UniProtKB/TrEMBL annotation:
Keyword field: Membrane, Transmembrane, Transmembrane helix, Transport
Membrane topology: Multi-pass membrane protein
Protein name stated in the entry: Phosphate transporter family protein
TM spans (from-to): 46-68, 80-101, 107-124, 136-155, 302-328
GO molecular function: phosphate transmembrane transporter activity
PANTHER family (UniProt xref): PHOSPHATE TRANSPORTER
One Pfam family recorded for the sequence: PHO4
GO cellular component: membrane
Phylogenetic placement of the source organism: Bacteria, Bacillati, Bacillota, Bacilli, Bacillales
GO BP: phosphate ion transmembrane transport
Major location category of this protein: membrane
InterPro entries, A to Z: Phos_transporter
Intracellular or extracellular location(s): Membrane
Length: 329
């Protein structure tokens, strides 16, 4: 029992470490545009993002249940704890590597890919719930497409509405509105991303027979929300620079359109209990808005690097997690 509790404690530590890293890795998602347009000072933006992430994380659990039960049934796995440990180590390694190079990759892709790879290597192909895994992958693929189209259409609409206004007046007004959209985007980030750590901890609790069903305990919600908020408060300046300045020159009206689109897509996914990549949604919204502003204004070479990272994240983390399961357990 003592050893079992120590191992379970390691799972909780790794899950909260993943959530903390996710927080500073994905801080840029919510505040990059508001910082780059000077709607918010960096420190103010980070504190706003941290507090709203915490609030959002405490309010929902649907995505956590999807993470914990749709890829595989933890109650049927004899080595579920070991699989979770390998999953978290693989996802953490990938998050740190992409953060170091300033690439806005997906923590969601990393976790889902690592969990699938760990289950496959540790329990065999029959243990994977292919239907549930397919639904999650479909949401991860469709959400950036929806965000890109939404960002493009919203920006085109705003261009028509404010065509006769002076750019200075328009941007002054939207700079104030960006405070609202930064808070909204941080809130929705918490409703979706923080639940992934909650889901993986609950997965481990069910696999170790300490829970009988996929219901997220309050202490799991509170600890995951706190870890996400603390990570967010650290900030992720490398990725803020990439998203806020390197894709295209963002003005307040562009930032508002991108933030509103990204938040809408993320919250829609949360209501459907689907884990999506906040990174993908927000980056795609920025690309869509930039395309509406002027197609040539977008630095498509950088966008291409980001997209390549999206596609390779799941197979790389799946292979890494599978390798860890094979070597360590």
């Amino acid at each position: 029992m003592e050893t079992s509790m120590l191992v379970l404690g390691l799972v909780v530590f790794l899950a909260l470490a993943f959530d903390f890293i996710n927080g500073f890795h994905d801080t840029a998602n919510a505040i990059a545009t508001s910082v780059s347009t000077r709607a918010l000072k960096p420190r103010t933006a980070i504190l706003l993002a941290a507090s709203m992430n915490f609030v959002g994380a405490m309010m929902f659990t649907g995505v956590a249940k999807t993470i914990g039960g749709k890829v595989a049934d933890p109650a049927t796995l004899d080595n579920g704890i070991q699989i979770v440990i390998a999953t978290l180590i693989a996802a953490i390694i990938w998050n740190l590597v992409t953060w170091w190079f300033g690439i806005p990759s997906s923590s969601s892709h990393a976790l889902i890919g690592a969990l699938a790879g760990g289950v496959f290597a540790g329990a065999g192909s029959d243990a994977l719930n292919y239907g549930g895994f397919r639904d999650i992958i479909l949401a991860l693929i469709l959400s950036p497409l929806i965000a890109f189209i939404g960002g493009y259409l919203i920006m085109q609409l705003l261009k028509v509405i404010f065509a006769k206004r002076s750019p200075h007046t328009v941007n002054k007004g939207f700079r104030s509105m960006q405070i609202f959209t930064a808070a909204l985007q941080s809130f929705t980030h918490g409703t979706n991303d923080a639940q992934k750590a909650m889901g993986i901890i609950t997965f481990a609790l069910v696999a170790s027979d300490r829970l009988q069903e996929m219901e997220v305990p309050f202490w799991v919600k509170l600890s995951a929300a706190t870890a996400m908020a603390l990570g967010t408060s650290v900030g992720g300046w490398k990725i803020i620079k990439t998203m806020g300045t390197k894709i295209f020159k963002i003005e307040p009206i562009n930032g508002f359109a991108a933030d509103f689109t990204g938040a809408s897509v993320i919250f829609g996914a949360t209501l459907l209990h689907l884990p999506i990549s906040t990174t993908h949604a927000i980056t795609s919204a920025i690309l869509g808005v930039g395309s509406a502003k002027r197609f040539s204004a977008v630095k498509w070479s950088l966008a291409g690097r980001i997209v390549i990272t999206w596609f390779i994240t799941i197979p790389i983390t799946a292979l890494l997690s599978g390798l860890l399961v094979t070597l360590l357990f």
